[in-house]
Amino acid sequence: DTEVTQTPKHLVMGMTNKKSLKCEQHMGHRAMYWYKQKAKKPPELMFVYSYEKLSINESVPSRFSPECPNSSLLNLHLHALQPEDSALYLCASSQVTSGSSYEQYFGPGTRLTVT
Amino acid sequence: AQSVTQLDSHVSVSEGTPVLLRCNYSSSYSPSLFWYVQHPNKGLQLLLKYTSAATLVKGINGFEAEFKKSETSFHLTKPSAHMSDAAEYFCVVSSWNSGTYKYIFGTGTRLKVLA
Q: Which residues of A touch B51 (CB under 8 A)?
């Protein structure tokens, strides 16, 4: 099973709402990633978790709050977003071993619209 | 620092003709390189990867890429394009950072396949 699942597929939220995006994988991967992708652009890395610990935060605004409750789950909590945060949010996972780079497996994404 | 440059933002080919998508990389050490495909409103799918084994890498759906160190290139090819190959393609180099590997994405090449 090489599947990464993401829920919901689509999300529309107002600027005062609080919502969460969910990502799940059962491949035994110990690295999980959040990316933001705007139209016609490559994905931009937001956060990396390695062994359930936050290892990279690419200076993401605090209105985005990641959480990794266990090795299979990754959440992204959203609060007080701005219209420019509307994008496709992609989750990915990979093995992690020092000295080797493994491929990342991507989920289908959550299409977020902030009104 | 690692980087990749995709030399063409758009490529158009006729169905049944060869595909060539060009990627040059910059890396201070032996790189790990990947090609991904993204169909509209979908996640990214791994086509193939190079991790210092064979320089000619075969991937899924008839795609292959050749790692050429002397030219710092990793071009993606396919002998005969299908309509279903129309998508966005990303060349990626992996970079070690803060105890994990980060993906550095190229800007993407949009492939159009003409009937």
A: 100-101
Angle at A36 between CA A30 and CA A37, to 5 degrees: 125
Strand partners, A47: A34, A57
User: Is the bond preceding A8 in cis, omega lying within 30 degrees of 0?
Assistant: yes
Closest-CA distance, A84 to chain B, in angstroms, reads 18
DSSP label at A98?
A: T
pLDDT per position in chain B (115 positions), as tens? 889 999 999 999 999 999 999 999 998 788 899 999 999 888 999 999 998 778 999 999 999 999 999 999 999 999 999 999 999 999 999 888 777 788 999 999 999 999 9
Burial of B15 (0-12, 13-18, 19+ CB in 10 A): middle
